[in-house]
Design a protein that fits this description.
Number of strands: 0
Structural class: mainly alpha
Largest sheet: none
Radius of gyration: 27 Å
Strand content: under 5%
Number of helices: 3
Distance between the termini: 82 Å
Number of domains: 1
């Protein structure tokens, strides 16, 4: 094989490696974005459950004539320390929890 043929094969090989590398990089970028979206969706689902629990508990407490101290102790504190509240904290979203104070 002459030098021109070897050069052509080398260039084609390098182009193939470059193409594969770019495809892997783009796939990795897409997977990172998908993970970010899935994480945000998971946090949103947790928050919707948390908010529904808070709203239900405080609504029922108010309907039954309970005061704010009762609501803080039996609704907010309890739900903040529940699995849903703890998960929000673990996912770095403690800012979404209702303050106990």
């Amino acid at each position: 094989m002459n030098n021109g043929g070897k050069t052509t094969i080398a260039l084609i090989t390098m182009l193939g490696v470059l193409t594969v590398t770019v495809l892997f990089y783009l796939t990795f970028q897409i997977m990172q974005k998908q993970l970010k979206i899935q994480t945000e969706q998971h946090i949103l689902n947790l928050y919707m459950t948390y908010k529904s629990n808070i709203d239900s508990c405080t609504g029922l407490a108010r309907q039954s004539g309970q005061d704010e101290n009762f609501i803080k102790e039996n609704c907010i504190k309890t739900i903040n320390s529940s699995l849903v509240g703890k998960n929000l904290i673990e996912w770095g979203r403690s800012d979404l929890l209702v303050s106990e104070y």
